[in-house]
Task: inverse folding
């Protein structure tokens, strides 16, 4: 099969798109995305089939979302909740995703609780933690780094997790 | 979310991010990243396709086990629409002459709303 040819990279640059999009909204300053040269790396300390795995989402329970709040105003707090309580679905209509081309009615398309429980049943992982965690998508790096990230680490330590899967919507 | 992953890694907890906004995650820099080239909303597989969801989640587990250095990205082999529907790439956050005025008006409306939130003291610094 002949190789395809393109003048642009295939994957979407959301940094480029959002800069143009919010520029068109009249915001004079482009959002400053997080950039890091150095990246930390931790290895598993035991075989995966003995590990307790945790999940982190950017979705919330509908009752905890202040729908009158302006997005990014910092009205949400990080939380921990039982995976069982998420099985009916979570609220993410306030988040920025492609509502014209897909939907989030199937939990396992953005928070694979059922799929990970199957992996636990098959012995691929030790277990999925009973709790999952939610973290706000915040415009403030400071709030994410100084408030949310330490809180998620604290939850993970309470639950004695061995590894964490994070799924931003 | 990538900032949270970095914080956990710094504390010695291995992580893997699953997502569809490749540039945002890679610019922030994470240890392990499972990238699926889908419209934003279904980073762990298409609705109703449990086989695909298992494959993508399984790739995240593979990375936890096998990645040996940071910035390890694996792109899953799935495409959104086999009939080569790439419209979603152009459509999302589109800016052109058809919507430029509407976007400017929406921005203005939003700034007014934000100013009133601030005036009421509901916002946070």
Result:
């Amino acid at each position: 099969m002949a190789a395809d040819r393109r003048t642009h990279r295939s994957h979407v640059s959301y940094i480029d798109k959002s800069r143009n999009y919010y520029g068109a909204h009249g915001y004079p300053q482009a959002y400053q995305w997080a950039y890091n040269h150095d990246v930390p790396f931790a290895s598993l300390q035991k075989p995966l089939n003995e590990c307790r795995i945790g999940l982190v989402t950017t979705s919330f329970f509908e009752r905890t979302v202040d729908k009158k709040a302006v997005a990014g105003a910092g009205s949400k707090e990080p939380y921990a909740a039982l995976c069982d309580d998420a099985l009916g679905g979570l609220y993410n209509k306030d988040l920025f995703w492609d509502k014209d081309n897909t939907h989030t009615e199937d939990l396992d398309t953005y928070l694979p609780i059922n799929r990970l429980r199957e992996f636990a049943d098959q012995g691929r992982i030790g277990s999925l933690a009973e709790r999952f965690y939610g973290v706000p998508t915040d415009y403030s790096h400071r709030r994410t780094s100084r408030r949310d990230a330490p809180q998620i680490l604290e939850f993970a330590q309470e639950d004695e997790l061995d590894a964490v899967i994070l799924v931003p919507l | 979310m990538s900032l949270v992953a970095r914080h956990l890694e710094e504390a010695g907890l291995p992580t893997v991010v699953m997502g569809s906004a490749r540039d945002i995650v890679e610019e922030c820099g994470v240890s392990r990243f499972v990238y699926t080239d889908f419209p934003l909303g279904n980073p762990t597989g298409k609705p109703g396709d449990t086989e695909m969801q298992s494959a993508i989640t399984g790739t995240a587990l593979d990375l936890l086990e096998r990645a040996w250095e940071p910035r390890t990205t694996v792109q899953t082999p799935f495409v959104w629409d086999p009939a080569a529907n790439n419209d979603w790439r152009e459509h999302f956050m589109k800016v052109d002459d058809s919507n430029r005025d509407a976007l400017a008006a929406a921005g203005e409306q939003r700034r007014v709303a934000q100013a009133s939130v601030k005036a009421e003291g509901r916002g946070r610094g």
Observations:
- The CA atoms of residues 8 and 61 of chain B lie 17 Å apart.
- The radius of gyration of chain B is 19 Å.
- Chain B has two domains: 2-81, 95-125.
- Chain B has five helices and three strands.
